[in-house]
Every structure is written in C-alpha cells, then in structure tokens.
Amino acid sequence: MISLKVNLGERSYPICIGQGLLNRGELLTQYIPGNSALIVTNEVVAPLYLARVEAALHDIKFKTLVLPDGEQYKNQDTLNSIYDCLLTNRLDRNTTLIALGGGVIGDITGFAAASYQRGVHFIQIPTTLLAQVDSSVGGKTGINHPLGKNMIGAFYQPRTVIADTDTLNTLEDRELSAGIAEVIKYGLIRDLPFLEWLEKNMDKLLTRDPKALAFAIERSCRNKAEVVAADERESGQRALLNFGHTFGHAIETGMGYGNWLHGEAVASGMVMAARLSEILGWITADDVHRIIDLIERANLPVKAPAQMTPEKFLEIMSIDKKVSDGVLRLILLKAPGKSVFTQDYDKDSLITAIKASY
Q: Which of 149, 249, 312, 322 is catalytic?
C-alpha cells in the first residue's frame, strides 16, 4: 500500500492506494470516530463492493443507501434522498458518511456531509479511475444545476481516501479512458516528466497493467495533493487543475448530463484550450498535435460535439465558476507541462479556437 498525505493542518488526511484495500477493514474503521455510519453507493457498485464495506463495519451501527447511477442524478432531488435517509434514521452529528463509488457519489455524498447538521464526518472510497486520481481528493463537493455543472457545493475535506485499485478491474473501458483524461491533465499542467511517461506507457494503462495504473494513480494524487495543500479554496494555483474543464463543463451541460462522461468532455476541452494557447502564440502546432495524439491514444474524443455551436459554448461558459467581475478566466498552456490561469485572451481568439475544434 502507498500512503500519501494531503497537508491541510488539522484537516490533513491520508490517501491510501493499493490492491485489496477493501478487505482491510481497519483502514476504514480507524477513521470513524462515532458508532454510526451511512454508506452511500449506487446500483452498479453495490453488487460488486458493498458487502466488503459492510463487513468492515461489524461493530458500527450503519445504514446503506443505494442511489441510481449516472451524472443526471447528481442533483437536488438525489441530495434530498440522502438527507431523508439521515433524518429518518436519526443519525446525529457524530455519524460518518461513506461514499462508495465514482465521482458522482463522492461529490454528492460529500456535499451532504458538509451540510447535514452543518457538517458530519466523511470518508471517500473511490471505485473509478477518475475518482481515484481526481474527484475524491481535495474536498470539492457539490451537485449540478440545469444551467451549470457543479455550481452548488462546498469545500469539505474527507477524513481519508481509500483507493483500492482492484476496483478498476470491473470498470468499463469507456470509464477507464474517462479517468485517463484527468491523468493526462496533470502531465500537461505541471508535470512534464509524467507527460513523457504517459506517452511511453499509455498502452499499459489501457490494458490495466497493475504497476502502470498504481504509478499513474500515485503520481496524479501526489500532484493534486501538492496543489490542494498550497491553495485549498481555489484562490489561485488550484484553478490550474481545471485545465480543459470550462469547455468540458459546457459540453456536459449543453449535451445533457450523462450523455458525455466527464472525462470525455474534459478531453475535448483540453484540445480546445490547447488550440487557444496556440492561437495566442504560447505553444506550437506540434505541441497541439502531440496533445491530440496522446488523447486519441487514450480512446478519448478530440473534437467538440457538432450539436453545440460556438455561441452555445460562450453562453454556458459565461456562468462558469471562474467568471470574476464578468470576465471568464481560463487555464491555458505556456508549454507542455506548464500552465497559467489567465484572462489574457480576446473573444475572437476564443471563438476561433472553438471553431477549430469541430
């Protein structure tokens, strides 16, 4: 097992990465301070892994809530169903919410934990690659609104993250690729040696080589933990983790939640951001081709959906969380492995970059 630490003072917590971790109940129970818990999972994950988590809680009073699967259920109605379960079972402020699933389960369970009785304990057990390398780490929680993705939420850190890499063996190929999009992101924004490693080892990731996956997860988590420790609430540096996400969130919102996986939308968004970076003269055409090649090798989309016009992109992006005083700031590339959070671009260049992505 590999253990990393997210350094946030008294709210610091470990990320545990390894095979067979769901069979090690003590990893979970040592972070449950009270005698009650609620496991929140979904209908896909529950038949595969719920029994192992329940077995670990043999000395703890627990309830289980199984939600429908899909981004389209990351909404207020589903959040209320978690509150209903907590209140019906009279779970108090010393209870622990355990998120067992992918990014949707982690985000919505974390937001429930942040807001129920003004904050209860919370543990992440991510079962998808995307959740293990990104959404489970850093304390971003929330739900979607019909007008914008992740527009309602809170920063709320878990007590621990337990990433059992064996869960990736049951992940669909499409979901695996979606997770790889976030892995590629780390290389592009701040870790050129990792980007070069990905170019050499992409085939190993796609064939689920255990050593390659473990390395990619550890390196990704290490990158994110460093950024979060430096800027927990996204006042500056942490925004770089959203490379490609402003375009990607527009795709998810515009196409209807669940039609494009988050990682697929981010992959297309990273290409758009790279094209804008090229238009601004910050990276070369060869750099863009290099990025597109790697994303294509991961079996991810590199084009924008034809159903969305440039005007639709601009409309949705205008209410993104990175809009400040009416100005949309974007994460762009100064070079592969080096990014910048900036408003130093013009609208015509942005439109040109979007049009070049069809």
A: 249
238 noted as active-site residue: yes
CA dihedral 178, 183, 189, 194 (to 10 degrees): -150
The verdict on whether 211 is a catalytic residue reads no
The residue annotated as part of the active site, out of 238, 275, 312, 322, is 238
Q: Rounded to 5 degrees, what angle do the CA atoms 33, 229, 17 make?
A: 60
Q: Which CATH topology does 173-355 take?
A: Dehydroquinate synthase-like, alpha domain (1.20.1090)
The active-site residue out of 190, 262, 312, 329 is 262
Sequence spans of domains, the chain: 2-170, 173-355
DSSP state, residue 166? G
Indicate if 249 belongs to the active site. Answer: yes
Tell me how far the alpha carbon of residue 266 is from its chain's centroid.
10
For 2-170, CATH gives: 3.40.50.1970
- As a whole number, the mean pLDDT across the chain is 96
121 is catalytic: no
Whether 140 is a known active-site residue: answer: yes
pLDDT value at 320 more than 90: no
Instruction: Decide: pTM greater than 0.85.
Output: yes
